[in-house]
Design goal:
This protein is an alpha/beta fold and about 350 residues long. The protein has 2 domains: about 20-220, Type I PLP-dependent aspartate aminotransferase-like (Major domain) (Aspartate Aminotransferase, domain 2, 3-Layer(aba) Sandwich), CATH 3.40.640; about 225-340, Aspartate Aminotransferase, domain 1 (Alpha-Beta Complex), CATH 3.90.1150.10. About 45% of the residues lie in helices and about 15% in strands. It has helices at about 20-30, 35-50, 60-70, 90-95, 115-120, 140-145, 195-205, 210-220, 225-240, 245-255, 270-280, 290-295, 305-310, 325-340, and strands at about 55-60, 80-85, 100-105, 105, 110, 125-130, 150-155, 170-175, 185-190, 260-265, 285, 315. Strands 1-9-8-7-6-2-3 form a 7-stranded mixed beta sheet, sandwiched between helices. Helix 2 (about 35-50) runs parallel beside helix 8 (about 210-220), helix 3 crosses helix 7 (about 195-205) and helix 11 (about 270-280) packs across helix 14 (about 325-340).
């Protein structure tokens, strides 16, 4: 049909292949699609890969974080230290326990700030959530030294061989937009037998993955090396093709990133969104909003987060992108610059 352009380039898209379809089809033919042996095998695979004593699959990354905090004893009246530069789901998990998020600023480079966390600790602090945001890893050592248990949030990062969890618990997301997918889903890992037992008891009531989802997850897990290689190749294309001034900040942290997002700075987001959108290319901010603003707080105690929100743009970098799509993203960014972005 004449006049019909190419399909849109989404900001995120799961990479589904024939191997994934075959795994799901085998599960369907087995007639065992509820929670069963496939879930148990997926959890065992994950525990082995991550190097954790316990791996518990959940219905979402948010549920995994709630179960971790609940198992660590977060109760009404307790505070949990949370960065403001993160999605609302993190604060929601704290509130689900009855706790109060104690919001803190972040460090440059989209990393958590140990000094800000230390300054926020008080007599009601029950836990710290260390978020490895946008695929950029933060060394947990200074956070672990502060005292309260640390839950590492890997919902936007999945590279356990490079970045193994070291806190009291770790959580991951298997949403369709994340590093690997089960459609919806999440994971809690821990080396603490008591934490694992409490979380598993809760999850038996609240629910978790089905065998159908786990079958997809196991197929995706087997292809993680290909995912990582494709993300790295896309990043190299962008670094070579785009003006250096847009990629300097991201290039500075790339050694500690698994490439979940490719981040631009020094370009006007509204202009980029308008121009790229007209070309069928979706772009996003680093996060949609800051938690302290949602809570009605002033920007003054959170200057780095406010600056990052204003300056960070995220362009498509998921491994399902084909070469023509990568070219369209590059052309969209260039067009936005020509339009004054």
């Amino acid at each position: 049909m004449s006049g019909v352009g190419p399909p849109p380039v989404p900001h995120s898209r799961p990479w589904i292949t024939a191997e994934d379809e075959a795994a799901v089809a085998r599960c369907l033919r087995s007639s065992q699609i509820a929670r069963g042996t496939e879930v148990a095998a997926f959890e065992a695979d994950l525990a082995d890969l991550i190097g954790a004593r316990h791996a518990l699959t959940t219905s979402s990354g948010t549920q995994a974080l709630w179960l971790a905090l609940d198992a660590l004893g977060v109760r009404p009246g307790d505070e949990v230290v949370v960065p403001t530069y993160v999605c609302e789901a993190v604060a929601a998990a704290v509130r689900q326990c009855g706790g109060t998020p104690r919001l803190v600023d972040v460090a440059p480079g989209w990393r958590a700030d140990a000094c800000a966390v230390a300054a926020a600790l008080g007599p009601r602090t029950r836990a710290i959530v260390l978020v490895h945001a946008l695929g950029v890893y933060t060394d947990p050592s200074p956070f672990l030294a502060l005292g309260p248990p640390v839950v590492e949030d890997f919902c936007q990062t999945f590279a356990p061989a490079r970045f193994p969890p070291r806190g009291a618990a770790a959580v991951y997301s298997f949403h369709a937009t994340k590093c690997l997918t089960t459609g919806e889903g999440g994971l809690l890992t821990t080396d603490d037998d008591a934490v694992a037992a409490r979380a598993r008891a809760r999850s038996e009531v609240t629910g978790g993955l089905s065998d159908l989802q786990a079958a997809l997850g196991r197929a995706q897990l087997a292809r993680q090396p290909a995912f990582a290689a494709r993300r790295a190749a896309i990043a190299e294309h962008y670094l070579e093709a785009l003006p250096r001034r847009l990629t300097t900040d991201y290039d500075a942290v790339r050694r500690d990133s698994m490439g979940f997002r490719f981040l631009l700075t020094g370009i006007d987001f509204d202009t980029l969104r308008r121009v790229a959108g007209a070309r069928g290319v979706a772009v996003r901010r680093g996060v949609d909003a800051l938690l302290h603003r949602r809570a009605g707080l002033d920007d003054a105690p959170f200057p780095v987060a406010a600056d990052l929100l204003a300056r960070t743009c995220s362009i498509p970098a998921h491994p399902s992108l084909g070469a023509p799509e990568v070219t369209r993203v590059i052309e969209a960014v260039r067009a936005a610059l020509e339009a004054g972005a």
